[in-house]
Amino acid sequence: MGADSKTGEEEKQNGNSFDVNDYTIIKEGDAEILMHAKNEVFYNKTQVNNRDMSIAVLRTFISQRKQEHEAMLARRRTKAANKVLDAKAENPGYSVQHNGESNDGSEVTEDTSNGESCSISEERTKNPRGKGREELKPPRVLEALSASGLRALRYAREVEGISQVVALDNDKASVEACRRNIKFNGSVACSKVESHLADARVYMLTHPNEFDVVDLDPYGAPSVFLDSAVQSVADGGMLMCTATDMAVLCGGNGEVCYSKYGSYPLRGKYCHEMALRILLASIESHANRYKRYIVPVLSVQMDFYVRVFVRIFTSASDMKNTPLKLSYVYQCTGCDSFHLQTVGRTVSKNNSVRYLPGFGPAVAQECSDCGKKFNMGGPIWSAPIHDQEWVAAILADVKSMKERYPAYERISAVLTTVSEELPDIPLFLSLHNLCATLKCTSPSAVIFRSAVINAGYRISGTHVNPLGLKTDAPMDVIWDIMRCWVKNHPVKAQPSEQAGSVILAKEPVLQANFSRAVASLSKAQAKKVARFLPNPERHWGPKLRAGRTITSKHVSLLGPRALNAINNDENGDGSNHEDVEEVPAAKRKKTEESDS
């Protein structure tokens, strides 16, 4: 329990109806919450990665926001000084009585010799120090779907500079739990966090441009909240958004994805990155309706969800560039070839820019590599999904405060991999898939990377898949490299109509050079920095929605031991002995062998 937390006896003395002894205390970071054994309020331990990443981004956002404000004030001072110089040049008799501030700290005007006054800045004059200068107010944060309030409490207690965190939920039990946890976390939480029973969509619509940060972390799809969320974020503010409906976003139900997000997914090895890009395209679409646009600073796929951090700006002119950032994807049904076609293009003439439809189609009816048809998906966000300067700043902050991040190892590994991605290359190839198409043995990643680099192209890994490779090499170059590899490592004869046979039947135009390239290993790989970590424990994944009855069918999500503990609690059995796992002996033995 924290030093500023109250004991159960203190809570009773204050007239509260709960006893701490009736709850389990869960500590994460600097925050503590009270959780009842029953599944009344949603809490997912797995989301510690999500919360840690959000705190790291939020700290960087506050720092960047302050720097941007100082830069804006510097530009205004420079502009005002230039106006004074111009006025002097036009009027030789122009004289300055006071420059900048008087001794009492007020801004004063500059008088000309003919009695006319000229303000030294665009701000109002003769105001006390600070007033009229658009002082940067501490940011306000909205957590639209708070449940237990753990995320809001961590923001308030761990991120310096936040003035207020508003936690919303439309479930009465969740709001009661959140308020209970706010009191339990002491004076800091009570002064900064407030909880409301409200529909997040209605609340955000009735509070437009009020919050510097809006956090959406729903159980499932965030699509129904996006329209109101993009209106609630202040200009230059940040929207943090999670989507856990990965089966939909990754192509399991394409028609459902289209109805929710306005894009059709494809089931390629890059499907998780495509899910990120579909979500970004959907947020951009909602923002455009209000003359706004997004700038992604970080987009990650972790565990069982995708999480994006985007800044939202208002500009009717910049909004016109949206079609240049969206593309349709053509995926060959026979091989791994994919091609992108932008939705729009621009033509510049006489210092004017015209926006026109994109040229198409980007591919023929049949794949030039294997002769098969194409599936078409999208539109997806094809512009960069990360800001590498932000990523570097976030990673540096995380490393400097590693003791304050419970999931430091995981988020630092993800950020390290993200920092080494090629930012301007959408989607990626899978080396194993390329070899599966040709039915050949796989070259090592270092050998393949070297061949691409020696051919004059760039290549990197991806945080989404340890076997994924991002490259700007066109598909015909990729297949030429693989043809050269197969010549040195022959394969068995395959039916002529198969995609791999058609590809190998062609002679390579490029003669690949497989000698080891200096840049074939990234800096993290060369230093042997861990980039893809295993789950910290068994049954690490999504948990049950709050309010659902926990039964034996949920053993795969919670684990048999946790399930037994819950059942014992409901039956009034407070014993702490080890329960026998209710799993068939054969299945239990197989599971133990797989874990060993």
Automatic annotation (TrEMBL):
Q: Where is the composition biased (Polar residues)?
A: 94-120
Query: At the top level of its lineage, which domain of life is listed?
Result: Eukaryota
A GO BP entry is: tRNA N2-guanine methylation
Give one GO term, molecular function aspect.
metal ion binding
User: What residue spans carry the region label Disordered?
Assistant: 87-137, 564-596
**Gene Ontology annotations for the cellular component aspect, listed alphabetically:** nucleus
Name the protein family.
Belongs to the class I-like SAM-binding methyltransferase superfamily. Trm1 family.
**Database matches in NCBIfam families:** TRM1
Q: Please report the name of this protein according to its UniProt entry.
A: tRNA (guanine(26)-N(2))-dimethyltransferase
Species name for this entry? Anisodus tanguticus
